[in-house]
Write a structure and sequence with these properties.
Blueprint: H1 3-24, E1 32-40, E2 46-54, H2 59-68, H3 70-80, E3 88-93, H4 95-120
Parallel strand pairs: 2-3
Antiparallel strand pairs: 1-2
Helix pairs in contact: 1-3
Pfam families: RBFA (PF02033)
GO biological process, one term: rRNA processing
Keywords: Coiled coil, Ribosome biogenesis
Length: 142
């Protein structure tokens, strides 16, 4: 099957599965999830589904719920997508989202540290190996 057709099927399943999850599955209050990517096999027999969960800490619980309701999700897909056989769904947490969140938190920590040092009047800038190389400026008494 051509890459174009597989990509089109991936996009359709991603969109439809996201809608089915929103309509059929109840998560704890304050927990949200979205389907970030789908990759169907060339045989169309299985599909890897990557999800994003907010807050990030709820990802493992969301994954358990999705795996528990896999049959409901496949039935929902069967009613919306015209395929000879609805693929078996395998759910994964999108690691890129977790890495992005960790980087965002690190940047926020650095910015907070900068704010603290500015309010205290202390500026600690890295010298990058320039210690002891400062030269005194010569002043002339003309």
């Amino acid at each position: 099957m051509t890459n174009y057709k597989l990509e089109k099927i991936n996009n359709i399943i991603e969109e439809e599965l996201g809608q089915i999850v929103q309509q059929e599955i109840d998560f704890d209050q304050g927990v949200f999830m979205s389907v970030s990517q789908v990759e169907i096999s060339e045989s169309l027999g299985s599909a890897k589904v990557w999800i994003d969960a907010w807050p990030i800490e709820a990802g493992a619980d969301v994954l358990k719920i999705l795996r528990k309701h896999k049959g409901v999700l496949r039935c929902g897909l069967a009613g919306r997508v015209k395929m000879r056989r609805v693929p078996d769904l395998k759910f994964f947490i999108d690691r890129e989202e977790i890495e992005d969140e960790q980087q965002r938190r690190k940047v926020e920590e650095i910015l907070e540290e900068i704010k603290k040092t500015k309010t205290q009047g202390i500026v600690n800038l890295p010298t990058a190996g320039r210690q002891g190389t400062r030269k005194k400026l010569k002043t002339s008494n003309r």
